[in-house]
Design goal:
Oligomer: single chain
Distance between the termini: 45 Å
Largest sheet: 5 strands, mixed
């Protein structure tokens, strides 16, 4: 075991897959010699050469088109979109092409593409760098959307994503890149896509989150424990497809639920989780399922983003509302 940050775990996963499969290619803006804007690909071009790890022009639409062409020729592309706020430039490639490849070809062609991209707030980035746009992807059939919250999960999920024969959007919260270390196996291992993880057991309420909000939820659970409220915290890890079974089993045990997302209230993932709970477990609920989200405005400038983003205090308040309903 080694102590790794999330960025180190991601680099390690990429190295393992480049070493294991010669068809894996890593490319994007500044990912070669510079090792990426966050150094996620640091040292990989030197180790594997410019034909396996290479820079592209500053054109996300071209990156998407290149990934599709390479996938159809038998490669496993791992393109990086430098920030997920630039999603709109590559949206047609993802939603109009990659996601439909298996269906439109009668299962004769695949799109084994893993699109990596940083996202998320709390790090004072410029405009259009921190937006949480995972809801757009979660509403796109044919695409899997993975969002790890720990170094251990990041490595295992990324290896699984690269080996998957369908397109995967792999989103990495910028605030988690170097915020803490965790024991991570140095060899290869996989974590199944589409499986949530119970990060903390509890009996009074279920808190469902993903990405950086998992850590806010765990902090909230610690505060709630001081008030004799036992909160179970579920890390979705994959927001599409959802692990509905784990969610429902937890809600049937606790009879209350709060869903947390960093994205705006209207952005989709939390609402989908709430709908699944209401449809499948309404007779087990002692209170409405409530949400903790950002407000329905465009992402604010850095000076006020900490006021805009949800935090542990907001989660505690919403849980108390559910408990005392």
């Amino acid at each position: 075991m080694a102590q790794m940050t999330m960025i180190q775990a991601i680099t390690d996963a990429l190295r393992i897959e480049l070493e294991r499969d010669e068809n894996v290619l890593v490319f994007g803006e500044d990912v070669g010699k510079n090792g990426g804007v966050f150094r996620a690909t640091d040292g990989l071009q030197k180790q594997f050469g410019e034909h396996r790890v290479f820079d592209t022009p500053l054109a996300e639409s071209a990156i998407g088109g290149l990934a599709i062409g390479l996938a159809l020729q038998g490669f496993r592309p791992v393109p990086e979109i430098q920030f997920f706020g630039f999603l709109f430039e590559v949206m047609d490639s993802i939603a109009g092409q990659m996601s439909r490849m298996r269906y439109r070809t009668g299962n004769t062609e695949q799109a084994p593409i893993t699109i990596r991209s940083p996202f998320g707030g709390g790090v004072q980035t410029p405009e259009m760098h921190a937006d949480s746009l995972e809801g757009l992807m979660a509403q796109t059939p044919g695409v899997k959307v993975v969002i790890p919250s720990t170094p251990y999960d990041a490595k295992g999920l990324l290896i699984s994503a690269i080996r998957d024969n369908d397109p995967v959007i792999f989103l990495e919260h910028m605030k988690l890149y170097r915020s803490f270390r965790q024991e991570v196996p140095e060899g290869e291992y996989t974590i199944e896509l589409g499986k949530a993880d119970v990060k903390r057991e509890g009996k009074d309420v279920t808190i469902i989150a993903y990405g950086a909000m998992v850590h806010s939820s765990l902090k909230a659970a610690e505060e709630l424990e001081k008030q004799n409220i036992s909160a179970e915290v579920i890390d979705l890890r994959t927001v599409s497809p959802l692990d509905v079974e784990t969610i429902i089993n937890s809600v049937k045990k606790t009879n209350r639920a709060v869903v947390v997302q960093e994205a705006q209230r209207q952005a989709g993932v939390a609402a989908n989780v709430v709908a699944e709970i209401q449809e499948r477990a309404i007779l087990h609920l002692e209170a409405p399922v409530l949400r903790v989200t950002a407000p329905d405005t465009v992402y604010p400038f850095a000076a006020v983003e900490n006021e805009w983003l949800p935090d542990a205090k907001d989660i505690v308040a919403k849980v108390l509302e559910v408990i005392h309903f």
